[in-house]
Every structure is written in structure tokens, then in C-alpha cells.
Amino acid sequence: MIEIQDVTYRYDENQIDLALNHVSLDIREGEFTVILGHNGSGKSTIAKHLNAILLPSGGKVLVDGMDTMEEERLYELRQKVGMVFQNPDNQIVATIVEEDAAFGPENLGVPPQEIRERVDFALKAVGMYEKRNEAPHNLSGGQKQRIAIAGIIAMMPRYLVLDEPTAMLDPKGRREVMKTLRYLNKEHGMTIVLITHYMEEAAQADRVVVMDHGQVIIDDAPSMTFANVALLKSVGLDVPQVTDLMFRLRQSGVYLRHDLLTIDECEQELEKRLREIKEG
Amino acid sequence: MEIKAEQLGYTYMAGGPMEKVALHDVNLEIKSGSFVGIIGHTGSGKSTLIQHFNGLMKPTGGRLLIDGKDITSKEVSLRELRFKVGMVFQYPEHQLFDETVYDDIAFGPKNMKLEESEIRQRVQDAAKAAQVDEAWMDKSPFELSGGQKRRVAIAGVLAMRPEVLVLDEPAAGLDPKGRDEILQMVEELHRQRHMTVILVSHSMEDIAKLATQIIVMNEGTVAMQGTVSEVFSRGDELQRMGLDVPQITLFVQRLIQKGYPLSKDIFTVEQAQKEILALFQKEQGVKPC
Q1: In this prediction, does ipTM exceed 0.95?
Q2: B279 at the A interface (CB within 8 A)?
């Protein structure tokens, strides 16, 4: 478990606004958590606290009981909490795809046979196994990002933290990355913390945390989170288009349920209402 | 300014062992004053294609015509072409380099060897259009936030007063509010200044909201070209290419398939709301909550 206990953070001594303003949050093992918020809400700042890229100005962060302030255990901490960033170009180090994925485990001193297995597993998990002998610079942005994810997965972290990993991808790339994350979560029990702007991605999580002005303003299941359309819009966020449609129709006086997220659910609900009206 | 590609092809490292065909047999036409969305999966050739529009890349096969003239011919000055076709690359804020915001925006017009007063005028004008705050002018661009820096970078391109504005994923990495601001700015440039806009995006929703024409790239060539409604009516094909239609369009298409009388041309939530409300009204008046 990762415990964030009353954490405050200030980027600049002279700044009055806290980037994190007394945040407390537990990331439980096996959970798929999405953190939403507009730019500057503190969501990336939170992510960077999970593996000690940033250290709290106040409060503490415990990863499996280990305080991120303990400098001598930094290595152990970073092995437990793997981090993927937005821009794949800054995360790729090797000239061949599979060598890039092997970089992490090699540094950890994993035996060669096991490195092979881990690299194969990781590249298959992100759908890049066929490209294992290619040069990353010849691949597209989306493909490169999947390799960056594979490089982290090959280190077998217990917690996988991703800071807007799909921001540069096309719809297919996004779907594939989401599928990969759900697979790692469901089949391998990997705990996932995903920072994103995409509401469709948040809809697929177990839990959605919404940040605004350095504070957690919502921490709930996706269906409950998105029921709060007005609040989400007020903090500069989107909701899925169908959820927005239902919200607008409700505001126009059509009686509809408010906790619907997927296109299937909304279709059923709308049809039900239309039928009821027709039949009087 | 009209852009036309005829059997355009581009091969990276042609003849070498790493040869890679990025574009082949591309035929397209972009009319002056239009707003064209370009969609396609990553690696489909979008970025390679747009770099031909201002002569940053030259076709290895076929031709690219600007106002009927081949860009490789002597008649076309590449230098002038680059002023006429403004290119906003992905994450343009990474290209800021000057000491002050003003100098950064002025870099293009200075290169055009304009009079000092003209440069000043253009910088002010571009800053206004890109919603760059007057108060930032003497600041270092590196003191600004990500979204602010991006607007400065776009102002730098606008200061050259291009006729065509090409934007590669201008909203990537921005939050919904930042995205709406940038896209609204692009929309205004098109509407008020009649600029031709070419917008590359992965967001079908954004394209649906803004563009009038769509070019779909797939496997290095043009797979579809047409109006928003023509392209998004081919949802199955788009999905096979790793693309999508806006969620709201998909939703309405499903209702149409079930026999509800709705318009096929619905691409925004507002349109859907209007049509579905009308449907409810027709089916016996809206019941209050």
C-alpha cells in the first residue's frame, strides 16, 4: 500500500499557493486508480511523490511502510514504484527495441535468462514483440511510448505510475495502452495509478481521484464521479460525451439516470424512457 | 493559397538498407480558406505529409503544387513559402529560445527583414490573436506555464502572417480547458482572418467540432477525403484503421439503426441534445423530473 499522509508541497519558497495542500490518500494494492485534474491542479505533483522524485515539504509518503524520505532505500523504492512519463523520446535509451526493454532489469542485476523472459513478456504485453529488433527512432510516437512502458514493466514493479502516457497517442494507441494496463492490473495484480485527461480512460478505472488547487475534491467510483457533471465542468474537466448528453437532457427536463458512463448504458436508458413515454 | 498533391511519395533513406516508404500515391487538394482536419493512426504518414506543405521535405516521387506551381521548380522560393505556410509543430513550446517573449515572437518577422515598426505591429497583433498577455512581453518565456508557452510559440508563427496555418496536435498534453482555449483561438483565426487551417489531431471530437473537410491517412496514403459527414459516416472503416468517430456520433448512429428518426450528421453533443429533445417532444411532450 502507498500511504500519502497529510502531504504539502511547495515548488518555490516564495510561492504562496501550495502545489499540494494537505493531501491524504491511500493507494491500495491491486487497485486501478485514475487521477484527474486540470494542469496545475497538483496531479503530476502527487505522482512524482510516489517514487521520491519529489519529497514532501510537509507530511509523509509511505510505500509498503517505507518512508520516501529515507535516502538509503531510494533504490529499493524506485524498484517498487515504476514511472512512465508523457514523452517517450525522453525515456528511450537504447538503439534496439529489445535492448531498451532490457536496460532496467540489466541494471537490477537480473540473470540473463530471466531478462530474456521479462523482456519478451513486457514487449508482448504492450504489443511490440514483433518490433523487438527494430530501432526505436524509426517507430511512431505511440509505438515508442509502448516501448517505454515495456521498459518499466520489465523491472516488475509492484506499483506502476503513469503520468499522461497516452497524451501523444492516436485512438488505437490509447486503446492498446489502456488494454495493456487493464491486463496488467487484472491478470498480474499490478497496482496502477494513471494520471490522465481522458475521461473515457477514467471510466475504466476502479477509482477516480479528482484534484483541484492541490486538494482532492472527489475520490469515488467512476460512475459516482461522473454523476457530478456540474462540479467536473467547474474545475475545467470533461465528461464522456454520452454522459454530457444525458446531463444536458436531464437539465432540459427529461427524467434520466445520472450515473451512466458507457454508450451501452446510455442507449438502454434512453430507449427505456422513450418507450415509457410512448406507452404513456 | 491552394495546395495540391499529385501521386506524391516520400521514402526515407531511399536506396539504403533501412529504406522506409512513408508516403505513396498521395493525391489531395486543399482549397484556399478551408479548414481541413487530418486524421490517421500514429505512423500513418501525417507528419511527413504536412512537412511537404512548406517545403521542409521534398517529395521523392510525384509532385506537390502550391497555387499550381511545383515546389521543387525554380519559380517557387522556398524561403517565401515558409513565410506563407506557418507550421506549428507538436509541443511548439520546446522551440522557444529567446530571452524575452517579445524577441521570441519577433524572430520570424526579423528574419523577413521587415522595418522595426512593422515588426512591432506584427508582434502585437500576433500576441493578441494568440491570447498572449501584454504583461509577459518582457519576461523570459521559460517563466511561463506550459499552456502560456504554447500560445507564445503559436504567436511566433502568426507574426509571419502566413496564409496557411498548419498545426500538428496543438492541444496535445493540455487539459480540457487549455485545449478549448487553443482550439477556439484557431477557430477565430479561420473565421475572422480567413486563414486556411490544416489541423492534425487524434481527437475525432475536436476535428468534428472545427473542420469542414477531413483527410484520412492510412498506411502512408490518403484513405478518405471528404466532408465531416461523409468521413464520419464510414465508422466501421475508420475503426479498422485504428481511428474512431466521435462517441456522440456513434451513439446517434446506433439509435438510427434501431429506427429512431435522427439526423445522420450529428457530430457534437449540442446537436445531439437538440435532436433527441425534439424526439422526446414528438413522442408525447417532455415530462418534468
Answers
A1: no
A2: yes
Flag whether A171 is in a domain: yes
Domain count, chain A: 2
If asked whether residues A245 and A217 sit together in one domain, one would say no
Distance between CA A67 and CA A44 in Å, rounded? 20
Is the same domain home to A215 and A256?
Answer: no
The reply to whether residue A142 touches residue B41, judged by beta carbons under 8 angstroms, is: yes
Which residues are CB-contacts of A105 (< 8 A; sequence separation ≥ 6)? A114, A115, A118, A119, A154, A155, A156
pLDDT tens per residue, range A171-221: 777 887 888 899 889 988 889 999 998 888 898 899 999 999 999 999 999
| pLDDT digits 0-9 by tens, A125-147 | 888 999 999 999 888 777 888 89
B3-228: CATH topology is Rossmann fold (3.40.50)
Provide the domain limits for residue A259: 240-280
pTM: 0.79
A122 and A258 inside one domain: no
Determine, yes or no, domain membership for A64. Answer: no
Of the candidates A143, A241, A252, the beta carbon closest to that of B43 is on A143
Q: Can you point out the beta strands (E) in B99-180?
A: 164-168
Q: Is residue A220 part of a domain?
A: yes
Strand, helix or coil for residue B20: strand
Who among A241, A244, A254 is closest to B286 (CB)?
A254
